[in-house]
């Protein structure tokens, strides 16, 4: 009886929404008869954004339609959950918030266009682990697709597109016209059991995908593209998250392709939530001014147990980069990278303890980061300007660095000294060109010395279901 009552409420809400439509004849959009997708969970109820007055003409604002649709569908969250279908068309919208036990599905010809009306972007407080906005001391605009304190959320499609129309934001940022930090495309906070998959993300105003204070997260089959000179258009930034898998993604942007974070200086130390149990697999990256995988610089809550493999970097500034500084505190430890292929790079490896950007002047100068257990193995690179730049902190060296079975082909105009090392400790084995004296060569006998864990992380046990939609199943 309870299930029937919930369904009746949902039907009433849908009828009201349909009754209030204006100019319905001019807004007809073809909703697909059926489709399938892989999801962490399937849904019992479905609706289209057109059922709530959505107009896919690229000019009409759909912010209220998206929020009304999601609010109505939230009524059946505990009765099998719901999915909202975005059909072919260009759907202009500002920020909207998701609900639990919910799937947002974008048709292959659907494009979400981020609004350029600042009134459609609520302002939020800074993240507690950051203490301020990253662009400005004040708050931040809510992301285009936002959610907090949710469980069981899927954002997916048949490679549908989310276009952040970032040029508007980048120009205003460069000219100092924004009082708040630019929005991300997707941000989910304090949430659990999340899937973001099979989408194309274009021209984000800022970071593209930002799960924060969350756990059990799958990011799969995402294509991310932004101009290589666009500011801070990081690809995927797991931030104070646990049990995350990022795989089969292509990222071409103006900043780090994957940036692993956990809070900034004294705020991150106080919040104390690390990013850990992270898998990065089958990633292709193009970013001439940044890293394929960056650890930090905001790492004050700690980063540990990161496993990256089968990575390709092309025209990218560095392959793996660790960014930290005096005042950060926290740690980066138990990092494992293998089978990485790099083509036309400035640095293959870069670690720095001199990344001096701070949230404010109140950081603790005695808060020294711990960097240890960094393992790189089975890698090749070509056309590289500098093999490695490894700069620890005086009195606080980076320890337990292990690099084995790595061949770096230097560029015709490469630096005469391929390795620069200060305040680091560790070993190498079968590395060419030969590493610095602080990482002594142990010979071929130690070629397997650098660890890569064999046991699975819990996220590997998640099995996707084959989910489907058919028109006659609309609520």
Automatic annotation (TrEMBL):
Protein's UniProt keywords contain Flavoprotein: no
The cross-references to SMART domains, in alphabetical order and at most eight, read: PbH1
Show the SUPFAM superfamilies listed in the entry: Pectin lyase-like
Q: Which domain of life is it from?
A: Eukaryota
Transmembrane regions listed in the UniProt entry: none
GO BP term, pick one: carbohydrate metabolic process
Q: Which GO terms describe its molecular function?
A: polygalacturonase activity
Alphabetically list the UniProt keywords: Cell wall, Glycosidase, Hydrolase, Secreted, Signal
Give a yes or no for keyword Signal in this entry.
yes
Gene3D superfamilies, alphabetized: Single-stranded right-handed beta-helix, Pectin lyase-like
Q: Could you tell me where this protein is found in the cell?
A: Secreted, Cell wall
Q: Which InterPro entries match?
A: GH28_Enzymes, Glyco_hydro_28, PbH1, Pectin_lyas_fold, Pectin_lyase_fold/virulence
Q: Which residues form the signal peptide?
A: 1-26
Q: Which family does it belong to?
A: Belongs to the glycosyl hydrolase 28 family.
Listed name of the protein: Polygalacturonase
Task: Give the originating organism.
Answer: Erythroxylum novogranatense
Q: What is the lineage of its organism?
A: Eukaryota, Viridiplantae, Streptophyta, Embryophyta, Tracheophyta
